[in-house]
Amino acid sequence: MTYQFDPLVPRPIDRPTEVRGPLADLDDAKIFAAPADPSDRPAWRAKLREWREDARRRHGYTGAAYDRPQSTWAATCYAVAQVWLWDELLYSFEDRAFTPDRFLADARERFGGLDAVVLWHAYPVIGLDDRNQWDFYRDVPGLTDLVETLHDAGLHVFVDYNPWDVGTRRGGDDLTELAALVKDLKADGVFLDTLKKAEPDFVDRLEAARPGIVLEGESKLPVERIEDHPASWAQFFADSPVPGVLRAHWYERRHMQHHVRRWHRDHSEELQSAWLNGVGVMVWEVVFGVWVGWSPRDAATVRRMVTLQRAAKDLLLDGEWTPLTELPDEAAGVYASKWELAGRTLWTLVNRGDTDYHGPLPGTDLFGGVPARGIGAAVEGWLPDLPPLPHDPDARFPHRIARRVSTQRTTGEPDDDAVTVPKGPYVLTVRYRARETGMYQGAPYVDEWKPLPPRLHDARTLQREGELTTAVAVAATEVTNAQFAEFAAATGHDWTPQGAPDEPVTHVDLDDARAYCAWRGGRLPTEDEWQLAGDRLRRGTPAVWNWTESEHSDGRTRFVMLKGGSDYRAEGSEWYVEGGVKDPDYTVKLLLPGLGLARSATVGFRCAWEVPS
Asked: Which superkingdom (predicted)?
């Protein structure tokens, strides 16, 4: 296939804007490109100041939203983590409980602690059944307690809003549902997934429900809406070779931006941009179920950065900011911003080069030079009290391997009509849709800027090879409600019947399915065994996806492969899990939620038994 763009190169809309032409044309910038020649920079800074004054006048800027006492925290929210609710740092599948202490300890050790967290909840599992985005928050036992624990630890909490969720169960209108959610959870902010901004009535309704609520749009926030959006998600922002200036933060210093490039394994460029602009970063290591961990070098850079930002927040907010201030020696690729307030000066320095730089530097060097691809700092007129903040040069990607949870052995006899798969080697071709979840190992879009169709959601195949050491008999039909009721009555298993007796049992998670199969002396079939038997398997009515014995964990994310497809199909968005009945070679990777949320109206199971020679 011929692609119309290079995914490893920023798109035109992501690139920095040259500071020239009519002032109004600069409103559309993400980053103002910086001039390479130091002699051009005084005029460049003057043009930036002229634009800011002109834009504020044209848009009638008041800054009133930034004076609300409940939302002033956003201006110093330097480190925010995007966290899947069921990240195994935050949730224990073994204990069936949230583990915020473990999550917070890791953040303190590696990143210097967090100021906020985004609790990501529904995507990419939404669309499997008719549960809507609100259900994926409302149905979580103990979520209010988790938010309270995070608040007690000093963090602010964002929830996620998916405006594209239009094809699942309908309740109230989105504004009513979201306003009620933020009020009930006592959420501090809302991440606007896929939205650059919320409309004024949206802002007003949320403000009435939770005064001081902080709305954070994705990507480039229009200038006129900086007025009522205290933060923005600076995703897919490409900088100029000489580091430039973030347009939204230059317009209003109290407007917080969080730099992130979700698929990148080298975060040095966005960290340096954040450092020179006095803004924050988003730490995002589990990207919709895919491990994109931060290297020790980049984590240490965040730790250095946010620790000093918190100590110097008055300088960063109220001081005189001189971007690309003069340095004694710029030939080494070292650049600085200068911040001055009440006789105190801070220089935030970055090194775009590949060689450590040790001077000369202005003022008192705080970090012992500026390491290659790293950051440095110097001060004059004050000396902040900082803990040791060593640089770590290790930029290697911290790989994680998703390992299969071992299957249980079988002891029982298969059904008379079970489909037998002979032992021996096999090769399978698996079809799937290239969602952001990837498949078994690794990120699907390594170092890409913004995955777009046709790469995103493209139809793809993979080949799997394996060997069955013994023949396996796979049940020809799914377990029915009547059969599961018999098991529940015999064992006392907690289960609420739903559906007709002869329909496939649903609203069962992996543990429920495994317990039934063990009671029958069997186990779940693996995804490969299911596919090998697939053409001879019968499907119940209504058609439902089937659990398989394919649970994997990389220590941060658990997932399982579903086979078979279902009659249910959520319409109206490409972000939903695909529905419809599928051929045996089709597979969906499903991230596993905890606390019962894996139970679905569209997922059942069948058993399998090993057949000795």
From this structure: Bacteria
The pLDDT value recorded for residue 613 is 73
User: What would the DSSP string read from start to end of 123-191?
Assistant: TTTTTSSS--TTHHHHT-TTHHHHHHHHHHTT-EEEEEE-TT--SS---S-HHHHHHHHHHHHT-SEEE
Mean pLDDT of the region 490-518: 96
17 forms beta bridges with 32
Of 454 and 385, the one with more pLDDT: 385
Domain count, the chain: 2
Beta bridge partners of 290: 287
Are 308 and 413 within one domain?
no
Q: How far apart are CA 588 and CA 242, in angstroms?
A: 44
The residue among 273, 289, 314 that closes a domain is 314
295, 407: one domain: no
Does residue 434 share a domain with residue 291?
A: no
For 401-420, the pLDDT digits (tens) are 999 998 788 999 999 999 99
Do 479 and 601 have their domain in common? Answer: yes
Say yes or no: 415 and 539 in one domain.
yes
Question: Are 299 and 423 part of one and the same domain?
Answer: no
CA distance 152 to 73: 15
- For the entire predicted model, the pTM comes to 0.96
Asked whether the beta carbons of 220 and 196 are under 8 A apart, the reply is: yes
Last-in-domain residue among 280, 314, 348: 314
Helical (H) or strand (E) element with 218:
strand 214-218
Instruction: Enumerate the H helices of 280-423 as residue ranges.
Output: 296-311, 313-318
Residue 329 has pLDDT above 80, yes or no: no
Give Cβ neighbours of residue 260 (< 8 Å, ≥ 6 apart): 82, 233, 234, 235, 270, 281, 282, 284
Q: Which domain holds residue 96?
A: 12-314
Across 379-402, average pLDDT: 96
The predicted model gives 463-469 an average pLDDT of 96
Helix, strand, coil percent values for the chain (each to nearest 5)? 25, 25, 50
Residues 6+ apart with CB under 8 A from 40: none
Residues pairing with 586 in the sheet: 431
* Spatial distance between the Cα atoms of 456 and 130, rounded to a whole number of angstroms: 24
Do residues 485 and 597 both lie within one domain?
yes
Give a yes or no: residue 385 inside a domain.
no
Say if 175 falls within a structural domain.
yes
What local confidence, expressed as pLDDT, does residue 1 receive? 46
CATH number, domain containing residue 66: 3.20.20.70
Q: What is the DSSP letter of 586?
A: B
Q: Is residue 396 part of a domain?
A: no
> Tell me: the pLDDT tens digits for 230-244?
999 999 999 999 999
